[in-house]
Design brief:
By secondary structure, this protein is of the alpha/beta class. It contains 15 helices and 8 strands. Strand 3 and strand 4 form a beta hairpin. The protein binds zinc ion (2 copies).
Amino acid sequence: MAHIDLHLHSTFSDGRDGVERLAERACAEEGLAAIALTDHDTGEGVDALRAAAGARLKVLDGIEISAEWRGAVMHLLGYFPPGGAARAERVRALCWDNAITHRLESVLRWAPAAVVERMQRRRREFLGEDAAFDTAAIVADVEESYRRSVAEVERALGRPPRWPVPPGGRLWREAMERRGLVPLPVLEAFVARDGRKAALIAAFWEDAVAAAKGRPPAAEERARIARAAREDCGFVLYAERSSITLAGAVRAVQEDGGVAILAHLSPTLRAAGIASLDDALPELASLGVQGFEAWYPLHGEDETERILRFCAARGLLATGGTDHHGKKEQRIGDLGGGRRVPVLPIVELLGG
Ligand SMILES: [Zn+2]
Ligand SMILES: [Zn+2]
């Protein structure tokens, strides 16, 4: 029976598969009739994925936006007609701020002053620009907090703190991730002494600082830096937290002509401990979302059923997908794995 997967990530956010590989995997998957790329805070990869899939597979435009609701970070899926993600101006503006704010926070949390200086130098060396950027004020106490974080991780691994930081092995990385600390590419570039990488990250960082100071750079400049950072460094614009409201995200998706769908509600609610599924569904529906992701690897069969019943009763759309990231260590779902999602009305609605 034909099935679909409307929740996939690529290297345009935190997935491991590039869009070409993702397209190949999806096209090789027996019975898969439609997919949607739903990268975090960007719809940039969709056109390339569609081009790679060609006529073999229906590709829906998607994006997954982190947005705050009752103190928890919810993930809102926005689906658009073909080409719609690229034209989603309001969503793009919203997501840029979303990503930039939190990227800056993590940079400030992680980058020691020595890295900053090195990056400044490297940026001039490699980009040939007069690229001084004022970092003295913002990095004053960063090194100390960084040192403390590293010490905490090493302690958790039962090892004495080491300084400077050794190149991160798997255990070190996992221990950091368990604490919600992201080993930034900037650190990896520093460790690897990769000048070009560090230079590009520095360029991105400068951009982030400018945005935080209320001087957001021009759209083309942002796009150029984001693209360079992604292509050359695998640098991901993805925020674990969000300062945008869920209502605002729903509005932006709809004003850009998209369909707003609440993603993986059960695990999100469980993690936040904020509401039962049955209480949350009507409350979230009242924000104007057009549907809910019912099929999800971490939804129990009973939860999927309850969401489907709610959607049917309210005339809302149901969707489903694997949340494929292509990472073995992050087994949320795998393309084509788990319970199969049947072909749903949203595919007819937006599938072109
Ligand atoms: Zn998500
Ligand atoms: Zn996802």
